[in-house]
Amino acid sequence: MTIERYCSPHTLEEAAGILASGGVTILAGGTDLMPQVHSGKLKFNPVLMNIQRVGELKGISIQGGVIRIGALATITDLLTHNVVREKLPALTEAADHFASDQIRNAATVGGSLCNASPAGDVAPPLMVYNAEVELVSKPNGSMSVRTIPLAEFFTGPGRTRMEPNELLAAVRVPVPKAGTIARFVKFGTRPALDIATISIAIGGVKKGPALYEVRVALGAVAPVPLRAARTEAAMEGKELDARLIDTVAATARDEVKPISDVRASAWYRQELVHNIVKRMLTDVAQA
Ligand SMILES: Cc1cc2nc3c(=O)[nH]c(=O)nc-3n(C[C@H](O)[C@H](O)[C@H](O)COP(=O)(O)OP(=O)(O)OC[C@H]3O[C@@H](n4cnc5c(N)ncnc54)[C@H](O)[C@@H]3O)c2cc1C
C-alpha cells in the first residue's frame, strides 16, 4: 500500500480524530516501523500519521503519587530524567542497555510497547513497577480514555489489546513505596547493541531480610513479556537466604517455556533465567 496522505497533528484530540476515520499508520521514532516497512514485513496504511508534534504525548511528570511517562518520551529521556533516575532505577538500567545513542534519541516508550516485541527492554521493568497504559480514542466524536495494566497489554508478538482507533498516550506508574528495591538485567550475546536473549526485572518492598509485594517480569522467554507468578509466590515475604534463593531460581527456570531461536536454545535460556535470578536475588538480599 502506498501512502495517500501524510499528517502531523498538533493535539491529542486531532490525532484521535484522524485515527477514528481508519486506515492510519502511526509513526513515532520510526526505529521499528521503518525497518519493518523496508524489509517488507509491514505495509503502510493509506494515512501516515506522525505524532511527534503532539505536545500532550511528551514529557515525564509526577503528580498525585503517579509518575506519567508520555508516549513520546525517548529512551534518552528515561536515562536522563531525574524522576526516572530517582524513583524508577530499574527502568534507567534498561535504558542504559538499549541500543546506541542514535537509536535512544529517537526510540520512544510508546513505540516500544506498541511494537510489542517479546524482547523489548522497556516492558519488564515497567511491569515490575506496576505500570498501566493510557489508551486514548475518539469513538463518537468525543474523547475517551481507558487504562489497562501493562501486564495485560500484550497478547502475542507484535500484538496488544489496543484497538485500531486507539493511541497509547502515556504510561502511568505509581510512585514506588518506601523500601522498594528493583533490579533489571539484560543478557545478550554481545555486551552492547544487542537484542535481549533474555531479560529479567525483579522488584518488591524490602523489609528486613524479605521482599514483599514481589514482582518478577521476564522478557524473551515467551510470546509476550510476562509476570512470573509462581516465582513471585515462592519468595513473597520469606527470608532471602541462600536456600530460598536456590529454590526461587529453580522455580523461575521451571516456570518459563522459551523457544529455541537464532539467539539461544530453550535449554540455554532456562539456564540463564536460573543463574541470573540467583545472582539478582543474592544482590537484593545484601542490599
Ligand atoms: C538498530 C536498532 C537497535 C535496537 N535496539 C533495541 C534494544 O536494544 N532494545 C529494545 O527494546 N529495542 C531495540 N530496538 C527497537 C526499537 O528501537 C524500539 O522498540 C523503540 O522503542 C520503538 O520506538 P519508536 O518510537 O521508534 O517506534 P516506531 O517505530 O515509530 O513505532 C513502532 C510501532 O508502534 C506504533 N506506535 C508508535 N507509537 C505509538 C503510540 N503512541 N500509540 C500507538 N501506536 C504507536 C507504530 O505504529 C509502530 O507499529 C532497536 C531498533 C533498531 C533499529
What does this molecule look like?
The chain is α+β, with helices and mostly antiparallel strands and 287 residues long. The protein is built from eleven helices and 14 strands. Bound molecules: flavin-adenine dinucleotide (FAD). Flavin-adenine dinucleotide binds next to β2, α2, α6, α7 and β10.
Salient structural properties:
11 helices, alpha+beta, binds flavin-adenine dinucleotide, four-stranded antiparallel beta sheet, 26% strand, 287 residues, globular, five-stranded antiparallel beta sheet, 14 strands
Q: What is this structure, in a nutshell?
A:
This protein has 287 residues and is α+β, with helices and mostly antiparallel strands. The protein has helices at 12-20, 33-38, 75-80, 82-87, 89-96, 101-106, 109-115, 123-128, 229-235, 242-255, 266-286; strands spanning 5-7, 24-27, 47-50, 60-63, 66-70, 132-137, 144-149, 154-156, 159-160, 167-174, 180-187, 198-207, 210-219, 226-227. The chain has a five-stranded antiparallel β-sheet. It has a four-stranded antiparallel β-sheet with strand order 11-12-13-14. It has a three-stranded parallel β-sheet with strand order 1-3-2, with helices on one face.
